[in-house]
Design goal:
Elements (H helix, E strand, L loop, with lengths): L6 E4 L11 H15 L11 H15 L8 E6 L12 E6 L9 E6 L15 H9 L2 E8 L9 H4 L5 H16 L9 E6 L1 H12 L4 E7 L26 E6 H4 L4 H14 L5 E6 L10 H15 L19 E2 L8 E2 L12 E2 L2 H13 L12 E5 L4 E5 L10 E6 L2 E6 L29 E3 L10 E6 L9 E2 L2
Parallel strand pairs: 4-5, 4-6, 6-7, 7-8, 8-9
Antiparallel strand pairs: 1-2, 2-3, 3-5, 10-11, 10-12, 13-14, 14-17, 15-16, 15-18, 18-19
Helix pairs in contact: 1-2, 9-10
């Protein structure tokens, strides 16, 4: 039995010489005895550094086999202490390889529905492309419903323990990854359903830490005293944080009161002169669909304009750049540049720049993505002695990664995947759940020519984005 409220850490073996908190080492020792059997290893307090290095390597394989660098994970068990999280949670973070110093963290917070989980969020190649661009970490919390009484209200109001666990995870994951600045950098928050409630509440609690918030089908703005606790005091700078409320057309069309609440939430923000976009997805209900193709441009623009200047130890967020914003006007699906001297209308949408404005217009009209540029070409392409073609690939920032074209002697012989993974929205390489998380964590970039006789042929590969555009061909070596 693992002691309640003590973390299970997955550490980078290369950093194993760093000491773990001593109570963590004791828990790791005990778990190894349960899993492996035999006498308990001696975890003497005089040698915590050596113990933490070897034990963390063992726990990496036992508990989180996929959390190897550049991925790091920590699990906290449910606590019975007042003010602490009353259900288990796993935090998984991806750190861009080669990054010298992190500038921020993008948090992808899952919702409350059946089957929702954030464990694969940090493995999402498309969200990684956004994080890599701005030297940000990508964090996926996953709250674990392990008993029937472990329900969403236990975590979606941060004040019930998830805020404290989140801050603790940033500190411990930063130490594990060799990036202690992870505990200090700003946050770009994305949340779906209950995750939107969590993200919108964190915005009110910590406006000085939040770059922007994307709320997909969830916000605490009109739920005070119902799904969440009382409204926190409004702090200086709260309404300077860019926001977006993204809902499905089928949600807004519901005949009962829940159909009307979304517009009321948006209007409540606009009454505070909040910088907020109203983003209706014409193809969906509560599921996320293709919303990442408008969320990522929105957050991209906000990260560009608001992240602290590199090297600024104060971590002070910058204000939105004047003269770059667009507005939709008071209604409709057309956006245009917003003059610096102009004031947003009562029901107008605000967008941070031209690129996000154009993406917004296309999305609210069609619910689809728009991209006219090819994706990055695959890299590290090699043909193994066993005839297997291996490669690496990065997702296209605009439209992700949908698949690959395999060529032999200059002619196409295969398209991967042969059968697209299950997707909510446009099919992509990893597949996509209704909560905007990958169906598959690991990309699996490999191919064997069924015709054989590989030494006699020349092979090449192209990447294909979700818009159907292909990269240049890269030969296997």
């Amino acid at each position: 039995m693992i002691m309640s409220n003590l973390p299970i850490l997955v550490r980078n073996p290369a950093l194993g010489s760093q000491a773990a908190p001593w109570n963590t080492v004791r828990v790791l020792c005990f778990v190894l005895v349960v899993v492996v059997g035999g006498d308990a290893p001696k975890c003497e307090a005089a040698e915590p550094r050596a113990a933490s290095a070897s034990l963390a390597r063992g726990m990496n394989e036992v508990l989180h086999p996929n959390a190897i660098p550049p991925y790091f994970a920590v699990r906290y068990e449910a606590s019975e202490q007042e003010g602490e999280l009353a259900m288990p949670v796993i935090y998984t973070v991806w750190i861009p390889p080669g990054v010298r110093s992190l500038r921020g963290v993008i948090v992808h917070q899952h919702g409350c529905g059946a089957g929702t989980s954030g464990e694969s969020a940090a493995y999402d190649l498309h969200w990684q492309a956004l994080a890599r661009k701005w030297d940000c970490a990508l964090l996926g919390p996953s709250y674990r419903k392990e008993t029937e009484n472990m329900l969403c209200p236990l975590w979606m109001d941060p004040r019930r323990g998830s805020e404290r666990a989140f801050l603790r995870a940033l500190n411990e994951l930063g130490e594990m990854a060799g990036h202690p600045e992870l505990s200090r950098v700003p946050w770009a928050l994305w949340g779906h359903s209950g995750g939107g409630i969590w993200a919108s509440t964190m915005h009110l609690l910590h406006p000085d830490r939040v770059v922007a918030v994307w709320m997909r089908s969830g916000s605490s703005m009109t739920n005070w005293g119902e799904e969440v606790g009382p409204k926190p005091p409004i702090k200086t700078g709260t309404w300077d944080v860019p926001l977006a409320l993204n809902v499905g057309q089928k949600e807004t069309a519901l005949a009962d009161s829940s159909g009307k609440k979304w517009r009321r939430i948006f209007e409540a923000y606009r009454q505070q002169d909040a910088l907020i976009a109203w983003v209706v997805d014409p193809l969906t209900g509560h599921e996320c669909g293709n919303s990442r193709y408008v969320a990522i441009p929105f957050l991209d623009a906000c990260l560009e304009q608001r992240l602290p200047v590199p090297g600024d130890s104060s971590q002070r967020l910058r204000p939105i750049a004047p003269g770059r914003a667009w507005s939709s006007g008071t209604s409709g699906d057309t956006a245009a540049p917003l003059a610096v001297s102009s004031k947003l209308g009562s029901f107008a949408s605000w967008l941070p720049d031209a690129k996000s404005g154009l993406a917004w217009m296309h999305f609210v009209r069609t619910g689809l993505l728009q991209d006219s540029t090819p994706p990055p070409a695959p890299n590290a392409v090699r043909l193994g002695a066993d005839g297997v073609l291996h490669w690496q690939a990065d997702a296209d920032l605009e439209s992700g990664l949908a698949g690959f074209i395999i060529e032999r002697d200059g002619k196409e012989i295969a398209r991967l995947p042969e059968q697209p993974s299950r997707s909510s929205g446009t099919p992509i390489w990893q597949g996509l759940t209704s909560g905007d998380t990958p169906v598959r964590r690991e990309p699996g970039f490999r191919y064997r020519d069924p015709a054989g006789e590989f030494p006699a042929h020349r092979y090449g590969i192209r990447a294909v984005n979700a818009a159907g555009l292909a990269s240049e061909v890269v030969p296997g070596r």
